Amino acid sequence: MPNAAPRPTACLALADGTLFYGQGFGAVGDTVAELVFNTSMTGYQEILTDPSYAGQIVTFTFPHIGNTGVTPEDDESVETPAAAGLVVKWDPTEPSNWRATDDLVAWLKKHNRIAIGGIDTRRLTRAIRQQGAPHVALAHNPDGIFDIEALIAKARAWKGLVGLDLAKDVTCAQSYRWNEKTWAWPEGYTQREGEGLRVVAIDYGAKRNILRCLASAGCDVTVLPATATAEDVLALNPEGVFLSNGPGDPAATGVYAVPMIREVLKKDIPVFGICLGHQMLALALGAKTVKMNHGHHGANHPVKDVETGKVEITSMNHGFTVDSQTLPEGVIESHVSLFDGSNCGIRMTDRPVFSVQHHPEASPGPQDSFYLFERFAEAIRARRA
Ligand SMILES: NC(=O)CC[C@H](N)C(=O)O
């Protein structure tokens, strides 16, 4: 029989009953999560290992995923992919890249992550845009046998990310020092040496390249676990406090993070937050966060600096957002998304306390927003002087 379609070995079931059949790869079994689409054309490994993707399966709109393999150098977190699973248009081909130490398929299998290939990711992305990021069950079985009713029931029963604190699952177990710099520091920026600006970074699921960028900007970084109290933070006598990115609902994580941040805000220390850190700084200042329809996940998102009018092309990965209508007096919206007008940054008007929704460390993506690391380091230097 010419061109017979291969027997499906994986099934993606959306909670509304929509089914996608394809070829399974990676681990065998099934998993439930929220499904989001990412529009990045490069950096699938950085995306899959970004701890902020915990609880989510990523479908890439770009069709060629896997063709540069994987290398430990590109991991954004310790070893394991944080994303719960992967959806691609075609099965990844053999990697072709001198940096590759493994191929994506073997790597997913080793790290127990399920993937499906050979499906219409454009149709799937349209479904996500229309119905909002759906709850899904993804199953891989080489025998091609699936209990569809059970998969749909699992997707329906899953409670979702709202109200979920995942930072405590992905944070570091113990505090540690970070001094490695980034290789991606763009032209025109100086790698700082030996200034030792004492920064405490709270790890809610921090991406490594954020820590590298802080080091490149001149910071001597001590990383503390997500549940660190204000006492833990202030005991290190920090000159600056950094709040990292991370997975889950900021309001749920805020149960322990917000009281810490509020105590830190009472001291006159520069504070910088990224993504989840941005959302929790906003909560600590009295604003509210809400779940978005399908969020922002990509490496080409235009963000406008409201004060200068300058547009930055940014990396994004978030499903919650700060409701800018709820920002209190003394806190201004510094950045907005040019895609949908949602909030992308805030700043206190009277001191260097600021945060952004996008990812200035890029990885993967454009480097337009690196200046934010310099702004943070500058604020610490100014306070020293
Ligand atoms: N990258 C992040 O820090 C994500 C923050 C939060 N978990 C969200 O989805 O909005």
UniProtKB/TrEMBL annotation:
L-glutamine binds at residues 52, 246, 248, 276, 279, 317, 319-320. It catalyses: hydrogencarbonate + L-glutamine + 2 ATP + H2O = carbamoyl phosphate + L-glutamate + 2 ADP + phosphate + 2 H(+); L-glutamine + H2O = L-glutamate + NH4(+). GO terms for molecular function: ATP binding; carbamoyl-phosphate synthase (glutamine-hydrolyzing) activity; glutaminase activity. Keywords: Amino-acid biosynthesis, Arginine biosynthesis, ATP-binding, Glutamine amidotransferase, Ligase, Nucleotide-binding, Pyrimidine biosynthesis. It comes from the Bacteria. Residues 8-139 form the Carbamoyl-phosphate synthase small subunit N-terminal domain. The keyword Ligase applies. The keyword Nucleus does not apply. Its EC number is 6.3.5.5. Residues 1-197 are annotated as: CPSase. Belongs to the CarA family. Composed of two chains; the small (or glutamine) chain promotes the hydrolysis of glutamine to ammonia, which is used by the large (or ammonia) chain to synthesize carbamoyl phosphate. Tetramer of heterodimers (alpha,beta)4. PANTHER family: CARBAMOYL-PHOSPHATE SYNTHASE SMALL CHAIN, MULTIFUNCTIONAL TRYPTOPHAN BIOSYNTHESIS PROTEIN-RELATED. This is Carbamoyl phosphate synthase small chain. The gene is carA.
